[in-house]
Design goal:
Elements lengths: L2 H11 L4 H8 L3 H10 L4 H10 L5 H4 L11 E2 L5 E2 L4 E4 L4 E2 L12 E4 L8 E6 L12 E6 L12 E5 L4 E7 L7 E5 L8 E4 L3 E11 L4
Parallel strand pairs: 4-6
Antiparallel strand pairs: 1-2, 3-5, 6-7, 7-12, 8-9, 8-12, 9-10, 10-11
Length: 213
Amino acid sequence: MDAREKLRMLIREYGGTQKVFATMIGTTQPTIANWISQNQIPPGGVAKICRALPDVSFDWLTDKEEMPRRGYQESRSQADVLPVGSPYYNRMPASAGQLEMGDEDVSTERISIPGLEVDAYFPVVGNSMDPTIQSGDIVGVRKLDAMSRIRPNDIYLIFTRDNERMLKRIKGVNGQSPTLTLYSDNPAYEPFQVLKEQIAAVYKAVCIIRTLE
């Protein structure tokens, strides 16, 4: 498997698009596109991927091992087995408010809940979605393949091109306006608008994990 194929595999598993994947590892979409075009991952890119996605093997990225991922296991039949559960980005919180994404380390674990189709889990900070989603909850999300699938009564995790991620309800998807209106469940927070062209990706919130303490 060459570098181009490895990058495409990672993009499919983490985020689904070059833009979201670039945000997750702390770089830009044109940089990812350049790596794919040149069919190579530079040393700095390998370092970013390994830091942001601990379950990706350095040796695999640098062609020093054949096992595709550190999280995979080899059975007696030599078949590769996918890790159980969906990735949990416990140091990459989703904001019930607004949160600017920095270049922080991302510690990735996995959560498995039978019967749920979830792409990833994120911890929640902020109280703008109280009482529905509270600070300290963990939200499970599933990526939408088109903004036209957004329903105003549901809650979404929105990634913007300005490196923000927000949990909100969304209105104005199917209108002619260039903006979307984002709403909080907490009445103390006023609705606000974002340009549609500034939305990098949208994930539907499909479950909440909450402790009873």
